[in-house]
Amino acid sequence: MLTLVSGLAWTVVYVEAIRVGLRDRTYAMPVAALALNLAWETTYAVDEFRTGVSAQGVVNVVWALADLVIVYTYLRFGRAELPGFVTRPLFAAWNVLLFATAFAVQWLFLAQFGTHDATRYSAFLQNLLMSGLFIAFFVARRGPRGQSLLIAVAKWLGTLAPTVLFGVLEGSGFVLGLGVLCSVFDVVYIGLLLRSRPAPSR
Does the keyword Transcription regulation feature in the UniProt annotation (predicted)? Predict the structure, then answer.
C-alpha cells in the first residue's frame, strides 16, 4: 500500500509539473533535481530489466518518459530565466555537464552500494536536495509562478510513504533521518505556497 501511494503521488508530481510548465511557459521542477530524477529512473529501469520485465522497471520507464517532457519545458523556456550573458552554446554546454554528472552520480551509487541500497540512498538524498531547491525556486521567482500546491503535497506524500516503509518498517535509520528532513522542508514549502495564495474576496 505504501509503495502504491508513493508511485501514485510521484506520478501526480510529474503530470502536474508538465501541465504547469506548459501553462506558465517555464519549467516546474528544479533542474538539478530533474537531472538526478531522470538519471535515477533510467539507471534503475535498465537495472531492473536485466533480470526480466518487472512492475517497478515499467514504472521507472514511464516516469523517465514524463521526466523527458519536463526536460523539454526546461530546454524550451529555461534560458529566458537566466542572465542575458548565458548564450545558447553556454546553456547547452552547462546542460550537458549537468545531466552527465547526474548519471555519473547514480552509477557511482550503484557501483558502491549495489542495487538494493543504492536505489534507496540516492533517492532519499536527491529528494532532500529537491525539497530544498523547491524552496529556492519560490524565493528566486518571488512567488509561486511555475509551481503548484498539488506538486508540493504530492511530492511530500510521495516521499513520506517510502520513509515509513524503509525507515520505520524496515528499520533504516539513514533513510528515516533523510525522510524526516525531507518532510520538514516539504511542509515549509507547502506553507509558503499556502501563504502566497490570494485571500478570498468577501
Answer: no
